[in-house]
Automatic annotation (TrEMBL):
Region span, Disordered: 163-191
Organism: Rhodanobacter denitrificans
UniProt superkingdom: Bacteria
Protein name (Swiss-Prot/TrEMBL): Lipocalin-like domain-containing protein
Length: 249
């Protein structure tokens, strides 16, 4: 084989997540809207704000510093998250008439990307809220995503010697030695550094950190045919696990 083919890494190229091959976290989101207050009990740290549509200050979250929650009707709420006055996320959650499922839609402005990330999906109720609370109250598990814009599903890798380079359309990137040492992570305020370790010719482990604390560990394995990559993620921040498959483009 020619030398360039021998030198190419199994990770080299652009990969796109297949939404039909995603294993969602089993740990539910826990929400409560009652007596004019909205509580996200599963958020880290938990959030409690007035549900009057005004910007309410929140602390401890790297992506936003205010949250505005509005009651649309008995089955729906609208949420706008901002940081330094800039809209970061705009989302709506609507509970079905039977109360067993809910649909959500979102738009997010990530990093330096000029195009927002958009998407929608479905949630399943796994526990009811207290009597008299708004319909969104209770425990919910994400069932599936109906659609997500390509800029959130796509990322590119390039191996150069013992260094792995990663970048995304939304402006996230790193260049990390594959020896487990920390390197800066760019373009994501919630991730400040990453440590990448090569576990084999087709497997690497990516440990994301925030201010030195591990927030997630992802094991990425390229299939023998080089056409797909399985990513298994342990979310240390929320205590959950998910996995998905990305296809070589």
């Amino acid at each position: 084989m020619p030398a360039p083919a021998l030198a190419q890494s199994a990770f080299d190229g652009t990969w796109k997540i297949d939404l039909n091959k995603v294993e969602m976290p089993k740990k539910p989101d826990v929400l409560l809207l009652q007596d004019g207050m909205y509580h996200c009990k599963s958020c880290v740290p938990p959030v409690s704000v007035k549900a009057d549509g005004s910007d309410q200050p929140v602390s401890g979250h790297p992506y936003y510093d205010t949250m505005a929650v509005s009651v649309v009707d008995d089955h729906a709420i609208h949420e706008i998250d901002k940081k330094a006055g800039k809209v970061i996320a705009d989302s709506t959650m609507t509970v079905a008439a039977d109360g067993k499922t809910a649909n959500f839609e979102f738009t997010e402005n990530r990093g330096d990307s000029t195009a927002p990330v958009t998407g929608n999906g479905t949630m399943l109720r796994v526990a009811k809220g207290p009597a008299g609370a708004h319909a969104i109250s209770g425990s919910w598990r994400t069932k599936s995503y109906g659609s997500v814009s390509d800029n959130a599903l796509t990322r590119s890798y390039k191996v150069d010697g013992d260094t792995l380079h990663m970048h995304t359309p939304t402006g996230e990137s790193y260049s990390a030695k594959m020896d487990g040492s920390d390197t800066p992570y760019q373009g994501d305020p919630g991730t400040t550094s990453v440590a990448v370790k090569k576990l084999g010719r087709r497997t690497v482990q990516e440990t994301a950190k925030r201010d030195g604390k591990v927030i997630s560990v992802a094991k990425m394995t390229v299939a023998a045919d080089g056409k797909s990559m399985t990513i298994a993620v342990d979310d240390k921040l929320h205590g959950s696990h998910m996995s998905f498959v990305a296809m070589k483009q």
